[in-house]
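F.,

This is the one I mentioned.
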């Protein structure tokens, strides 16, 4: 979307962690939510129109083991001076 951006990020987390976060917010069964996330990811990655992919020049930030503050610190640390 922004090919000339100075910093490109691909922010992700494991399906299990995303499911645990969602269940903490809205409730539900972690296993069911995780299965739904995995199915949605598969669909998003393989769709013909605008598939979800990281660009070769993007920095991948896997937030699986990170707090919000950790993520913010990581991203701020990536910004050019």
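My design for it:
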């Amino acid at each position: 979307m922004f090919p000339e951006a100075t910093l490109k990020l691909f922010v992700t987390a494991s399906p299990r962690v995303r499911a645990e976060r969602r269940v903490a917010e809205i409730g539900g069964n972690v296993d069911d939510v995780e299965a739904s996330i995995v199915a949605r990811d598969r669909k998003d990655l393989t769709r013909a129109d605008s598939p979800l992919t990281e660009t070769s020049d993007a920095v991948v930030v896997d937030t699986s083991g990170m707090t919000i503050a950790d993520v913010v610190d990581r991203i701020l640390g990536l910004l050019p001076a």
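The mean pLDDT is 95.

Talk soon.
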